[in-house]
Amino acid sequence: MFLYTVRRLVSLVPIVVVVMLITFTLGYFGPIDPVRAVLGEEWEDEARYAEVKKALGLDRPFLIQFLDYMGAMFGGNWGQSLSSFGGAASDRAVGEGRGAGFSGTSTGVREMVVGRLGITAQLSFWALVFLVTFAILLGVLAAVKQNTAVDYTIVTSSIIASSIPAYVIGPVLLIIFVLKIPVFKTVGGWDGMFSRQAILPAIVLAFGPMLVIVRQTRAGIVEVLGKDFVRTARAKGMPERLVVTRHMLRTAMIPVLTSMGLITSGLLTGSLFVEQIFNIPGIGKLAIQTLLSGDHAVFMGVVLFQSLIIVTVNLLTDLLYGGLDPRVTYS
Amino acid sequence: MGTDRGSQPEIPLTKGDEPDAMPLLRIQALHTQFETKQGTVRAVDGLSLDLYEGEVLGLVGESGCGKTMTALSIMGLLPGNGQAVAGEISFEGKNLLQCSSEEMKKIRGAKIAMVFQEPMTALTPTMTIGRQISEAMEIHLDLSREEARERALELLEHVGIPSPRARFDNYIHQFSGGMRQRVMIAIAFSCQPRLLLADEPTTALDVTVQAQILDLIKQLAQEAGMTALFITHDMGIVAGSCDRVAVMYAGRMVEIGPVDDVLLNPRHPYTQGLLGSVPSLDSNPGDRLFSISGLPPDLASLPTGCKFWPRCPLADDRCREEEPVLEQYGESQAACWKVMPLHTN
Questions:
Q1: Structural domain containing residue A141
Q2: Is residue A277 part of a domain?
Q3: Which parts of the sequence belong to the ABC transmembrane type-1 domain (chain A) (predicted)?
Q4: CATH code of A207's domain
Q5: A3 belongs to a structural domain
Q6: What number of C-beta contacts closer than 8 Å exist between A and B?
Q7: Among B249, B266, B233, B230, which residue's Cα sits nearest to residue B344?
Q8: Chain A: nearest CA to B214, how far in angstroms?
Q9: Mean pLDDT of chain B
Q10: Which neighbouring-strand residues pair with B58?
Q11: Is residue A241, in this structure, part of any structural domain at all?
């Protein structure tokens, strides 16, 4: 298993390089000119334009720029935000970061991305906690009470919960719980994962994937419900609770694990809507800002981290299969 | 005694040598049915059967004749929409059909244990075999996890699993079919039940392993003085392991008696057919093996009269109209209008 992990980690390198090449190419040929972003109003001054372009290293050929970037990246230097050069981009890219876990003054790409990622990760953690506890519990309940009112209620309400988009349910929750009944005071920013402020966005994040998990858990349990080994467990006189948790749940969780992996990747790469609605300086918000402001170095850093997250979560998911199903071996 | 309701009379079926003993398990006029789109399937149709302390009773018949459904009715583990709609199953003075699910949980595994046919699928793939043996003892015998583990190790050794300590934490995919059935047997015997229901425990195994598993069950049952119901379609197993044999056809009993008597003097044409279809060493090579013509009846639309008449070479008008009831012939009982006078002693 150790060798397997090492081999998988090594095979991540080419994947990441390809992702970076595509992102770099799109940024290079894209419509947003970083030089203009830095200069703002002054961009029409040709001498000044050429000077900044040279300073940013953007006058060199495409391939040289890319190789230079990749070399620096593997060396641990992920570059600087455009805001370090002053100008219009700086206000938007850096100004958002506030509160614990994010140093608002840094312009190093790595510091910026890591700080934002920390916030998104804390938010994702709570969303996953909600999902695992409620969605799996509801799925098991629906399966055990198959084709009864309980089952129909659970499935129908999860369909509703997952069908309403985050940009609808988010503002609705804000109106109810902030304006009408002021349980939460949401003013944006981030006060750490144990602040009350984290609850609403985490719930909204959990709503989307709710249906998938409820359904898959239900289907998984229903599938093993009629299996011979479940009958054997009952023939031993085991209490129903233990029949479900010991004999059924692990087998039923194998397809759920696949979805949980994808959902975790999705959550950790940041939610554009939820972070925007609740004004949380997470990585999703950083991605959209830097993309629009032409801050390519930061955007590259964001994409790099996102692709690392996806491939790492995939690897972790594959390793967890072995924990669930003893028949899985790694070689 | 005669009845035209299609059910069998509730006469006690006593074991020859101890006629007054109280049975450990008494099944009376059990009807187990499944509601399907094709109508009501009568899986068990008015079965009455007594099982006496310490005896091994073989329950034989073709696939789908209601043997397994009888056992699952006793356990209260009928699948899907199956239900024991009428009759009584008395065990230790209780009617199992009226026990609450909590009461049944205290009986299953503890007082009545079952060994299933398919060792490949009857054990949980995601749980160590040791835990699967020990968990029931924690519940029924109130043992701590450690004590149950020690007992499970002893059981593994007892059922012939080499190096049980190393095997305790294995999963079933690391075991062969015969070894899995040994684990299954260890589970069944773990709480020292009074009654063992063995549902074709050797059918899915290699022939060489079958005998070992059979010997193991016999030996353990004998040591514990256990009563057993052996469900099988193998007359060889009946001859070698059982005290009495009951033959089922279409959800009802057609013949029951001491093994020697039934095997040597089968009264019912169906029993004769079953015995005739066992290959013998005396037969000449090239001889065609006897088989009962036709197929078992559709349990959702049974024929009138004797359920066996469409396949019976002796059937006449009475057989087609009037259902025979169990009558005593010597030491055995059979339900047939055509029982040969030759065999009635």
A1: 115-284+315-324
A2: yes
A3: 117-321
A4: 1.10.3720.10
A5: no
A6: 80
A7: B266
A8: 20
A9: 87
A10: B230, B245
A11: yes
Confidence bin at B131 (pLDDT 50/70/90): very high
Task: List pLDDT tens digits, range B220-275.
Answer: 888 888 999 999 988 888 998 899 999 999 999 999 999 999 999 898 999 988 88
ipTM rounded to 2 decimals: 0.85
B135 to A324: CB separation less than 8 angstroms, yes or no:
no
Among the listed ranges A98-107, B86-95, B246-255, which one has the minimum average pLDDT value?
Answer: A98-107
Q: Does B173 touch chain A (CB under 8 A)?
A: yes
Distance between CA atoms of residues B7 and B46, nearest Å: 5
DSSP result, A32-65: --HHHHHHGGGGG-HHHHHHHHHHTTTTS-HHHH
A251 to B125: CB separation less than 8 angstroms, yes or no: yes
Q: One-letter amino acid identity for A216?
A: Q
Q: Is residue A197 part of a domain?
A: yes
Reported as a pLDDT band with limits 50, 70 and 90, residue A178 is confident
**pLDDT above 60: residue A122:** yes
Which phi and psi angles does B34 have, rounded to 5°? -120, 130
| Poorest-pLDDT segment among A50-59, B161-170, B322-331 | A50-59
Residue of B nearest to A324 (CA): B126
Number of domains, chain A: 1
Mapping DSSP to helix (H, G, I), strand (E, B) and coil, where does residue B187 land?
A: helix
Determine the 3-state secondary structure of A175 from DSSP: helix
Q: By C-alpha distance, which of A139, A132, A326 is closest to A222?
A: A139
Q: Which residues of A18-55 are buried (b: 16+ CB within 10 A; e: fewer)?
A: ebbeebbeebeeeeeebbbbbbeeebeeeeebeebbee
